[in-house]
Amino acid sequence: MTFVVHYAELGIKGNNRDFFEEKLVSNIKTQLKGLKAGAVMRSTGMVRVEAGEADPIEVLKRLKMVAGAATISPATRLELDADLITKEAVRLFVSKKGSFRVTVRRPNKRFLTTSQDLAAAVGAAILDANPDLHVDLNTPNHVCWIEITDHGAYVSDEKVKAAGGLPLGTGGKLVSLLSGGIDSPVASWMMARRGAPLHYVHFHNFPYTDRASIDIVKDLARVLNRTAIRATLSLINLTPIQEEIAAVCNPQYRVILYRRMMFRIAERIALREDAGGLVTGESLGQVASQTVENMRTIEAVTVIPVLRPLIGMDKEEIMARARQIGTYELSILPHSDCCSLFMPPNPATKSLETLVAEDEKKLDVEKLIEAVLKEEERLDMKDVSW
What are phi and psi of 13, to 5 degrees? Predict the structure, then answer.
C-alpha cells in the first residue's frame, strides 16, 4: 500500500517550498522509524509513503500526527494506464451505496487523457458496475481520488484528515511552560503544529508533593513527541521560591509572584536554548491569574514574546483538542499543580504591576533564580508514546 500525503500551506511557500517539503519528508521518516516502512518521496504537490513491510494501520496512525501533513489517502499504486486505473476504481466502489464522484489530479501532463475525461470515464464504469450508486458532484457519500504523477497513478476511496500546519523545524524554537494539566499540552501541540521545535519547562513542588506531576509530564512529552519530535524537558523545583514568597510577600499577590518568577526562569532557559519566545496554556478569564491585568503584570518581567495559543478558547474546546491529540487521559490523572502551593484564600484578579513590583522588592530575585537553576534536571525526551 502507498499513502499519498497532501499538504496545504506548503503549497504557497514559493521559493522556500523545497525547504518545507524536505522538512516534511525528514519528519515523516523520523516518525516511521522502527516500522520497516518503505520509501518516503516527494512528488509534485504531495509526498508518497510506501508501507513496505510495516502494518498499514500503524503507518497511518503515525502519519496523521506529523505536522505539515493535511490529508492522507491510503492508495493503490498503478502504471499510467487508463484501463488499469478504471479497473481499480471499479473494484473499490463495486459494493458501495449512495452517491459518489470522481476527482482526478493530473500534475503529470504527459498522461494525455485530461482530468475531466478520465473522471468521466471512470465514473461511467463505476455506474455500469454498481447500480446502487449515483453521481453527486457537490455532497457525495464517497469520493474516488485519482492522482496522475510522474511515478504512476494512485487510486483511493479515502482521504483522512491529518494534523495540518507546517513541518516541525520550519519555525523558530520556543520554550513551553508544561504543567500536568489539560491546557498547556494543547498549547504546546498547537505551536509544534506551526513548525516550532519545543523545549518544555515543568515546575514542581517536591517534597511538598510527590513526583506524580513529573511522571505525568514525562508521559505527556512522549505523547506530544508524535508531533513535536524529540523535544527536551527541564524540571525546576520551585519550592524554595514559593516558600520565600509565602513568608515575606502580600498573600494576595502570591500566585502572580510565583508566575513572574516562573516566567523569568523560563526566559533564562529560552535564551540558553536559543529559543525566541515562551508558550503558555493561558485562556482569558479561566482562573484568577489569567485576567488581562494579571497577565500583563506577569509578562512585564520578560523581554522575549509570550505566546498564548489558547487565549480565546473555552474549556470545552481545549478538552476536545486534548482528546484529539491524545493528552487528555494523562492530564486528568491526579497530581498537584505547582501554583496551588500556599494558595491564598483571595488571590488578586486585577493587579497593578507597580504594586506587585514593589512587593517583589522584598525578594532577592537573582539569588532565588540562580539557586533553583542550579538544581535543574534537563532531559532529552527522544522516545515517543504511540
Answer: -85, 0
